Amino acid sequence: MEIRRCQTQVGDQAIAYNHYYSDSNEVCFMLSGAGYAYDHPYFYFSRMMLLKRGVNVIEIQYVSDDLFSLPDEQGDAEMSRRIEAVIDEVLRPRTYKTIHFIAKSLGTVPLVSLIRRGLFPDATIVLLTPLLKDPAIVEAIANSRQPGLLVIGDQDHQYSPEAFERCRSSNLVLEKIKGANHSLDLDFEVGPSLQVLGQMMQRTEEVLFPVSVKEN
């Protein structure tokens, strides 16, 4: 495995991304939150788990200050444009048999846009703390047939009990963490927060790499 520091041009913006490269035919695209970066626990340990299995990992550095000066609709479109440019560049020279996505918070917006448009229908997705206060995002998740996992805490400012229940009509495994905030931490409780982290990493691995049971 080698780390390739790459970038692609999107208009006048250079979008950087890290490619943890291997010869595997499996790839996972990671989409960070606005303030939750790739060195934060849920991305750090997800990457560790993926690299152990030899999966190519792509960390897209799509967030920049100018995004937040745009109206919501324009900002969402620009995020999608940046992310899809990187995805296209990564997929152009190689054929990957298996594609995964892991997104957190703001990063779930462009990922849900991909889902809504029917792109990568066979990809497995992990939605960490999606923006469930946004009805369009909730409906897109609820109507999707995408396999994957959705994780959110009931103390997250983006959590909505009604929206969470609506998402049950999807094919996603839903995990509601009692007492967890938007970082999926349990207040300032270190031990319980680490326990939840471990449980969710195990859950993520089970969803991304399901073990098929052979019939006798």
TrEMBL record:
SUPFAM superfamilies: alpha/beta-Hydrolases. It comes from the Bacteria. InterPro entries: AB_hydrolase_fold (IPR029058). This is Cyclase. It comes from Exiguobacterium undae.
